[in-house]
Amino acid sequence: MNSHEGIPSPNMPELPRELYEPVFAHTIEIEEYLKQELTLSYVDLDGSHELQTCCGDILKTINALMDYTRMLDLVCEQWKLTGFHRATYEYQAGKLREIAEKFQTAIGYDYAAAVEKCRKKQAKKQRTDDVGEDALALTVRKWQKTAEAQAEDTKAEHQKPPAAESSALFPIEDSLPPWEDDFS
After folding, report:
1. 3-class SS at 54?
2. How far is it, in rounded angstroms, from Cα 9 to Cα 153?
3. What is the spatial distance between Cα 46 and Cα 43, in angstroms, rounded to a whole number?
4. Environment class of residue 50 by beta-carbon count within 10 Å: exposed (0-12), middle (13-18) or buried (19+)?
């Protein structure tokens, strides 16, 4: 079976996930702005055509094109392609970059700047926003502090000099045992 039929061929090299994961993120407010409809017009041999889309779709198309060109470049190096295969991948990557750059210019977007901004954010933000992990860490710290406090209490009790004869049930003071308080 060939790899294009859904099952990868056994000689296909593994591509590391960290190289191909998405590197762009944006906020929900931007998402709403990006959904505003716009019209793309083009002319071919059949005449004039219009396509309804939105800025967000074009932005995603730019990101996909640029990510794919990056992947083609990486694959050429990782797979050590030469000859026709390398030339084909490099040609396709160049053409796709040209298309992405046209779209970027049209909507005023800079893919490289967006990737750099995202990388800076990732480098600055080392902590995860996983509330469950934070709660678990706090619980573990609380248990540790409780265990330390109990260990200190136990140590302090063992170091106390023995007091005068007293019973744990009946303290030395002139007080009645708890069950006799009700009958006084």
Report:
1. strand
2. 65
3. 8
4. exposed
Q: How many angstroms separate the Cα of 117 from the Cα of each of 49, 59, 64, 83, 90?
A: 36, 16, 18, 36, 27
Question: In this predicted model, what pLDDT tens digit does every residue of 44-102 receive, in sequence order?
Answer: 899 999 988 888 889 999 999 999 999 999 999 999 999 999 999 999 999 999 999 99
pTM, full prediction: 0.50
Task: Compute how many other C-beta atoms are within 10 angstroms of the C-beta atom of residue 99.
Answer: 14
If you write DSSP's letter for every residue of 17-42 in order, what string do you get?
HHHHS------HHHHHHHT-EEEEEE
Say how far apart CA 81 and CA 37 lie, in whole Å. 42
Residue 12, H or E segment: none
